From TrEMBL:
An annotated Gene Ontology molecular function: siderophore uptake transmembrane transporter activity
Its membrane topology: Multi-pass membrane protein
SUPFAM superfamilies in alphabetical order: Carboxypeptidase regulatory domain-like (SSF49464), Porins (SSF56935)
Pfam family name, one: TonB_dep_Rec_b-barrel
Cellular component, GO, one term: cell outer membrane
Domain TonB-dependent receptor-like beta-barrel: 303-757
Signal peptide: 1-19
Keywords: Cell outer membrane, Ion transport, Iron, Iron transport, Membrane, Receptor, Signal, TonB box, Transmembrane, Transmembrane beta strand, Transport
Family membership: Belongs to the TonB-dependent receptor family.
Record protein name field: Iron complex outermembrane receptor protein
Top-rank lineage group of the source organism: Bacteria
Region (Disordered): 554-575
Amino acid sequence: MKNLLSAVFALLLPVMASAQFTISGKITDQQTGEILPGASVALTGTHTSVAADVSGIYKINGLQAGNYTIKVSYIGYQVATKSIVLNSDQTFDFKLGKSNLLTEEVTVTATRASANSPTAYTNLNKGDIEANNSGRGFEYLLDQTPSAVVSSNAGAGVGYTSVRIRGSDATRINVTLNGIPLNDAEDQGVYFVDLPDLASSVENIQVQRGVGTSTNGAGAFGASINIQTTTRRDTGYVELNNSVGSYGTIKNTVALGTGLLDGHFSVDGRFSDINSDGYIDRAFSHLKSFFLTGAYYGKNSVLRLNVFSGYERTYQAWNGVPQDSVLAGNRRYNQLGSENVNGTAPFYGNQTDNYTQNYYQLLYDQKLSDKLSFSGALHFTKGYGYYEEYAINDSLKNYGLKPVTVGGTTISATDLTRQLWLSNNFYGATYNFTYRPQKNASFILGGAYNEYDGDHYNNIQWTAQSAGITPGYQYSENTAQKNDFNVFARAEYHLDKFLFYGDLQYRHIYYSFLGFDENLNNVQQQVDLNFVNPKAGITYQMTDRSNVYASFSVGNHEPDRDDYTQSTPESRPKPETLYDWEFGYRTHSSIFSGGINGFYMHYNNQLILTGALNDVGAAIRSNVKDSYREGIEADGKLIITQQLSWGLNASVSSNKVYNFQQYLTDYDNGETVLYKQYNKTDIAYSPSFVGGSTISYHPTSHAEIAFISKYVGRQYLDNTSTVSRSLDAYFVNDIRLNYNFSIKGVKNIGIGLLINNIFSEKYQSDGATYPDIEGGKVVNYNYFFTQAPINFLASLNLKF
């Protein structure tokens, strides 16, 4: 590694020593002279882009002498470009004219925080996404945002990946794609593995922490992630993006677009194929996806149709590696798919998860007047697939079958393979009206109505012993329906240096499912829930470059599918409620931009695993009356020199639950007992410190060397603060190298190298625990998601 770094620096040394110049200027409205803060300024053919500050000022440092094209864009304005010859520090002001075509940013405006909203948020633009889009799961784009912890089941970043924000997993993070809910309607999780390489079709992302603004779909209890896909590109293009790396990882992406045709039409498409063997034994991933979009741009309207699909086939690695294997040095062991408890038979090769999702979105934006605009969408998602698994000596009674006698031998159990199927439809509509009667006021009325139909059925595919079971025998089936309606109103009003913010949402849920009644019979049941979620806040503009804010929000969250289906009406859990206080400070200058945010999140009836069993003997989540998260988040970017910058983020938090009762199963008598009561203890998977760092050096505008670090504190696997059931803190470092150049006939050639975990830290990013009592003592059964030692991804990107 030292030799590699030395070689890289040696190659770049002549370039580092060459003269460096600066381009700067101001962006304003052509007619009114009004400044345009946040305007995007980019150098075409490079990865260099900046945003104008609150005074409309931009500055690009560290440029070599040469020819450049500056591209300036701002929502609602025409794109301006200027070709220059740079041989000294120069100033270029841009006056933008209003666009005669409506832009698409209004599609996601209703569910996003504005620049000065009293909300903790992070925006990722196209450049941020491209710099980190090397083939790993979508969640890795968020790794350097505050309070985020990312993990990979297969250990190499491909396949099933996940993120927790402020200790909350995907079931408590609201995710929308163009304002349309992406969370699963029943278990409320988000599975980006079903949309491989989505990042290659994403224009921008906003991550809001806490309750955030009103949005569509599942309630945000830790954060919300708002994603906007491909928008207009005015010129035609063809892009070939390829990556290859450790553990057989290969990513191939082809993207192309027509640009704006006849001043009104555009068509863009992408196809991706990703394969990886995984770090964990046999944890391979075969992933495919496509994205096709076409749009019509009018003077006052935009109509866009998105059709996209994802397919995944992954070998199961979702149980993690047993702790005994990790301690013995076998960090890659995968026990799933073993045909024999003694390990003498070969592993079952088709212990896989197989799923396809097809998405259809029709998006429409209409400018009704200078003050009023409308944005709406119709959507339909079809998902279908199964996971297959090998069961050892499984009892026939588990499948509703009686023992059979064959040749004088009674068969009551057998090895078998089974497929657990899900086929579902999700469809509905979203809408919002935005009204701006004057410059200092805006009002939004929005909402959605969505329906979900899910068919769950399970089949036996094969048996080791003949038990009269034909292949494909269906032993269970049930259906579910969920209707989700919400409406919200939001207002922002500027008075002198103050911004007043108010937001009120009403949400109604109807859910019909198969569950246990009071006699423990499976019967169709239903629940109706009504939630009211108010939000209010204030921002004070201290200077034109800094402000302070405070807000209070209420969020409500329904139990998930298992909470309902594994309980009876008498033991059914209550919905959760969150009271979220946020307060912070933001500043922006040519040298430093960043902020600090404090939060206090108090939960009422939070659902957590306690070890208790329900009426039918299954582990359940139970409501705990009081729990909270409180902490401070800070993030910022410091421009040290014209070429050197340092981005930092850190979160310090205390995450506690009161009066937690731990239940354990005593295997000596088969009973579940209250083992211990804790007055105050840590919430599981909630590290008290999470920090990130990106030191980026641009020896030229075409090259980058970045040193990326991530520290995650100890994470407890249950709610008892027991060190023997926890993940050790870890500190991981990566190096990212990028170089861009062009030749005749190729607009840009990008060469990249991502070296992950350069010091081969042995760490576990996630896990689970299943303790019990044996012989009067507590025995821990811990499982860890071990992550790969030093590994790499090299990329070659061509743009025509």
